[in-house]
Amino acid sequence: xxxxxxLIADVQEVTxxxxxxTEPAEAQSPQKKKKRRFPLSIQLCVxxxxxxxxxxxxxxAVNSTSFSDWYRAHIYPIWVNTYGRLTxxxxxxxxEILIMIAVFGIPASLLAMIVxxxxxxxxxxxxxxxxxxxxxxIITFVVxxxxxxxxxxxxxxxFAQTNGIPENQHTNEQLEMLGDEIVVELNEAAENVQRxxxxxxxxxxxxxxxxxxxxxxxxxxxxxxxxxxxxxxxxICSFFMSQMNLTxxxxxxxxxxxxxxxxxxxxxxxxxxxxxxxxxxxxxEDEATFIAVLACIRSDDPYYRYAGYLTAxxxxxxxxxxxxxxxxxxxxxxxxxxxxxxxxxxxREYWDSVKEKEDTVFDTQTVSKLSSEFVDSNLKLNGxxxxxxxxxxxxDLMLNYFIDKA
Length: 406
Known about the structure:
Layout: H1 4-63, H2 65-88, H3 94-119, H4 124-149, H5 159-163, H6 172-190, H7 209-218, E1 233-234, H8 238-243, E2 248-251, E3 256-259, H9 268-278, H10 285-297, H11 302-321, H12 326-334, H13 338-356, H14 364-381, H15 394-405
Parallel strand pairs: 1-3
Antiparallel strand pairs: 2-3
Helix pairs in contact: 1-2, 1-4, 3-4, 6-11, 7-9, 7-10, 9-10, 10-11, 10-15
C-alpha cells in the first residue's frame, strides 16, 4: 500500500505531466509565429543581397574594363548556354510574354492588393507582406538580369580593341571609295535574288539556321562569336515594334534575339544577325551592326549577301550625304541599279505606311518619340556619350577593317 506521502507525490507528478502537456501548446505558439516570419526574413535578406551584389558588380565593371572583358568572355556565356538554351525551347518569344505579364499583370495585381486590403481588415498586414515580397522579387529580377545580361557589357573594350582593328580617322575620299565598292557588290548581288512583278525582292531564306551559321563563321576571326546561338524569334505584336521604329530587339530578361516580322523582309537577315551579336556580348549598336553586315556579306546565301550590302549602303550613303553636294549625291545615287532602288523605295514606303496608319491602339508619333528618347537615354546612361548617334560609327569600323585588310 502506498503511503500518503507517495500518493501526494504521484498526484504532483500527474499534475506536472498534465501541465507539461498543456503548456507547450501555449508556449510553442510564439515559436510557431517566429517560424512563420523567419522564411520572410530569409527572402528579404536574399533579395537585398542579390541587388547589392548586382550593384557591386556594376561598380566593378564601370571601373575596370579588363574585368568587364573577362566577364564577357567567361561568365556571360554561362547565361547564354543555360537560360538562353532554355528559352530557345519555346516556339514563341518568351520575352514578349514577360512584357505582356508586366503590362497587364502588375496593374491587375495592384488592383487585387487594394481590394484585399479593403475586405481583409483583420489580415491587412499579411496581405501587404505577401504583395510586398512579390514586388520585391520582381525588382530583384529586373536589377540582377539587367546588370548581368546588359549593363556590364557596355563597359567592355570596344570591338576594334578586342579584335586588333585599327582606329584611324579617314578622309571623305576613302569613304566615297568604300561607298562605290559597296554599290558595285550590291548591284551584282541584286541579280542573284528572286523578285516579284513589282521588281521587289522575294526573300527565299530562313531567319534562323542561316543566321546562326553566318555568325558562327565569324568566330574563326573574331573573339566571342563562336559557340552556341539562341533561336531568333519573331514578335507577335510586330506592328507595335514598327511604331517604335524597331526592327529587332535583344531582350536580356529572356536572353532572346527577337525581330519585327512586319518590316520589309530585305532588312531581316541583318536585323537577326545584329540581335544575335548582342547575345554574344557585343552590346554596342554600331558594333552589332558591323558584325551583322560582315556575317551577311560573307554568307553563302545570296539573300543574306544582298541584305548585308543593302544595310551597309544605307549607313555609308547617309555618311556621304552629310557633307556631299547635290551633284555628288546625284552622281552616287546614279550608280545604284533600279533593282536595288525598288527595295529601297519599298522599305521607305513601309515606314511611311506605319506613320500614316490610323485607328491604332497607340498613337504612332507618340510611341516613336518615347521609344527614341528611351533608347537615347539608355545608351547615355550606360556610358555611350553620343547616344543614338553611335549607330553611325559602324561606318568607321567598316573603313578601318576593310582598308586594313586591303
